[in-house]
Amino acid sequence: MIKWTKLSWLTVVWLLFFLALPLLLLVALSFAQKGVYGGIDWTLNFVNYNRAFSWTHFRIFWRSVEWAFLAALICSVLSFGTCWILMTVRSNLRVTILGFLCLPALINVIIRLYALKNFVGTNGPWPQILDLLSIPYDPQALTANPYLVLIGFILSYWPWALLPLYASFERMDFALVEAAQDLRANFLQVFRHILWPQLKLPCLSSFLLVFIPCLGEFVIPDILGGAKSMNFGNLLVDKFLKSRDWPLGASLSIILIIGVVISFSFQKMNEERQ
Amino acid sequence: MLEIKNLSKTYTNHEALCEINLNLKSGEFFSLLGPSGCGKTTLLRILAGFETASSGEILWKGKSILEVSPQERPFNMVFQRHALFPHLSVGENVGFGLRMKKVSQVEIQKKTKEMLNLVKLSGFENRKPSTLSGGQSQRVALARALINEPEILLLDEPLSALDLQLREHMQTELRRIQRQLGITFIYVTHDQEEALSLSDRVAVMSGGILQQVNDPYKLYSEPQTPFTARFVGSHCSILGKVMAFNAAERRLEFKTEDGQNWQGRWSSSDEPKLGDEVEAFIRPENWQITSLAETSLNQISVKLFHSIFRGAYWELQVEASENIFFKIHRAREAAMEFKVGDKFNLSCRAEHLLVYGRES
After folding, report:
1. Last residue of a domain, one of B206, B230, B254
2. Which residues of chain A have pLDDT under 70?
3. A107, B54, B179, B217: most buried by Cβ count inside 10 Å?
4. What does the alpha-carbon distance between residue A190 and residue B327 come to, in Å, rounded to a whole number?
5. Measured between CA atoms, how close is A179 to chain B, in angstroms?
6. Which of A173, A176, A185 sits opposite B100 (nearest CB)?
7. Which residues on B lie below 8 Å from A191 (Cβ)?
8. Looking at the structure, do residues B338 and B215 belong to the same domain, yes or no?
9. How many CA atoms lie within 13 A of A238 on its CB side?
10. Digit-coded pLDDT (tens) for A78-131
11. pTM score of the predicted model
């Protein structure tokens, strides 16, 4: 039985105004039409969904999935390794190291992205390193390419993967590793039979915490991707702000939301099965 | 069978173990007893291979095992908090060691059944560890270690998390299983009653130093160091200065600050000098109650301060002088005649008063 307090009513009102109503508006918009002068024509039909399921959109979506997947995978693996190393350090030192690792996250993301852009730009140290090593490069592509977007994703979202995974590592009883070693398990067997079954769910959570925002990310690809690199997030921004086709933008957003909900449901199902 | 020679372990600013020498016999129940931080768990973990020694040697059947990994040592360990794998069933937990050794599934199932039968948990194969009580978890941990047929079983305070009744029951079970299998148990505990009741031999440790290794009776009745006397069993302590020493009979006479003379048994290995400060210990059950009119050796006048009924006996707390309290044990009937505030004399025989040089 839910006990309704003033605070719970506040939460309901908050969710109603800032989640349910905008979502309803988005759903309604996705069935409306683009007006001749950039406005909304409220003739409701499924035309936008027909337009959304185009081959171009699918390619952009798929590429976004690929890059988000790669970024999330790298972040998860990096976080797993970092947590493993942190567990070997004295407990009072752990939090300090963790604090230093997350320190860059306190700087505004735009500043960090432009710092990266300057680092790899023609006047930055990166081309000089490439020159020193006699590695050929295209000066035009240095500051705008998909790999830079991937690095941007990783640098921006790594703490999102690291912190929840660290919490799981902290909770884990490492006497289990010793118990398994005592029962003749080698390193690979300890990982396969003891660590992975207990850490796969936190790893999946870490993965999704990077994958989902990367899928809809538009600032990082915009700053580091250049004209040739378009993420699904950029497509949405273009539809809403540049071509002022709000209904198509809304239908694409709904598709993205459904994708995210499916990802979360998958995780939830996994959690319940565990 | 297992020899530990001059084993030391030093951390950055702290010596956890100092020149430990021990010889373990086959099939004995051996306990490492000491307060928290005395180094007993460190010693057990070095034996298991989870910690490395700074110096010294561990010989197993004459061969050094210091460089042998935990996986390859013929020992198994029961952990303090059981360390059962939460995602595996009881049966899978017990059979884990055999699975790692790639034993056939049929054999694993057969042996798992045998082991669960041994620890009286037949039919628990499919239960998850989270559904077990503390005592049941402990039995699973025991079965999981024993299925590998270790030559030595290392137990790190395995009963510390259990309530008193369950702990006593599990103590009996542990002894039964140890006798049935005939393997050596090395048992770490801070509970002196547990160590005395379970073990064939007990090693008392303090500050990384081995204080004494003896069977429980000798440890209790003839402690070799003041630490052992203080730690094993309860006691009363009397401080004084040496007045005379008879080396042949090991009998020592000392005087307390209030001028009273006492005679006790000198229990340290070195010889005392006249005027040395000494500390004497007496067990609560070794006091005799005498009437105020009587005079005898090692006598002290006391007033009954408080009496506690302990079931099998009464514990009488008596006040010797201002703020100096002793405990004495009396049989149930014999204690009934005393009331709080009663005055009487206590005395003890010289051989029951164990005297040691005072630790600085």
Report:
1. B230
2. 1, 274
3. B54
4. 53
5. 6
6. A185
7. none
8. no
9. 13
10. 999 999 999 888 888 998 999 999 898 899 999 999 999 999 988 889 989 998
11. 0.77
At CB < 8 Å, which residues of chain A contact B?
173, 175-176, 178-186, 189, 193-194, 197-198, 274
Q: How far is A53 from chain B (nearest CA, A)?
A: 43
What counts of helices (H) and strands (E) characterise chain A? 14, 2
Domain C-terminal end among B169, B204, B230: B230
CB nearest B76 (choices: A182, A194, A274):
A182
Contact assignment for A182 to B48 by CB distance below 8 Å: yes
Length of chain A (residues): 274
CATH classification of the domain holding B245 = 2.40.50.100
Do B224 and B238 belong together in one domain? no
Average pLDDT value for chain B? 88
Position A233 in a domain: yes
Report the residue of chain B nearest A186, measured CA to CA.
Answer: B71
| Distance of residue A177 Cα from the nearest chain B Cα, in angstroms | 9
Domain span including residue B223: 2-230
In chain A, which residue's Cα lies nearest the Cα of B48?
A182
User: Are B199 and B246 members of one domain?
Assistant: no
Structural contact between residues A5 and A219, judged by C-beta atoms closer than 8 angstroms = no
Q: Does residue A9 belong to any structural domain of this protein?
A: no
Of A186, A194, A198, the CB nearest to B71: A186
| Domain of residue B188, CATH code | 3.40.50.300
Angle at B92 between CA B184 and CA B189, to 5 degrees: 35
Report helix, strand or coil for A88: coil
- Cα–Cα separations (whole angstroms), residue B239 to A209, B211, B282, B304: 68, 21, 12, 22
Cβ of A173 within 8 Å of Cβ of B144? The answer is no
Q: Tell me: pLDDT of B105 over 70.
A: yes
Q: Are B94 and B115 in contact (CB under 8 A)?
A: yes
Count the domains in chain A.
1
Residues A182, B145: C-beta atoms closer than 8 Å? yes
- The gap between the terminal CA atoms of chain A, to the nearest Å, is 26
**Complex-level ipTM beyond the 0.85 threshold:** no
| pLDDT reported for residue A252 | 94
pLDDT value at residue B316: 86
Considering the domain boundaries, does residue A203 fall inside one?
yes
- Tell me, yes or no, whether B191 and B333 share the same domain: no
Contact (Cβ atoms closer than 8 angstroms) between residue A231 and residue A64? yes
* Domain interval for residue A102: 67-107+145-273
Residues B115 and B206 in one domain: yes
Distance from CA of B316 to the nearest CA of A (A): 44
Are B79 and A180 in contact (CB < 8 Å)?
A: no
pLDDT of B120 reads 85
**Domain total for chain B?**
2
Among A176, A184, A189, A273, the strongest candidate for a mutation testing the B interface, having the largest count of B CBs within 10 A, is: A184
pLDDT band at B132 (very low <50, low <70, confident <90, very high): very high
Q: Examine the domain organization and report whether B226 and B144 are in the same domain.
A: yes
Say whether pLDDT at B233 is over 90.
no
Question: Cα A12 to chain center, whole Å?
Answer: 27
Identify the closest residue of chain B to A185 by CA–CA distance. Answer: B100
Summarize pLDDT for A123-140 with one digit per residue, the tens.
889 989 998 999 888 888
Q: Which of A13-22, A205-214, B6-15, B317-326 has the lowest mean pLDDT?
A: B317-326
Question: Which residues of chain A have a CB within 8 Å of the CB of B148?
Answer: 183-184
Percentage with pLDDT > 90 across chain B:
38
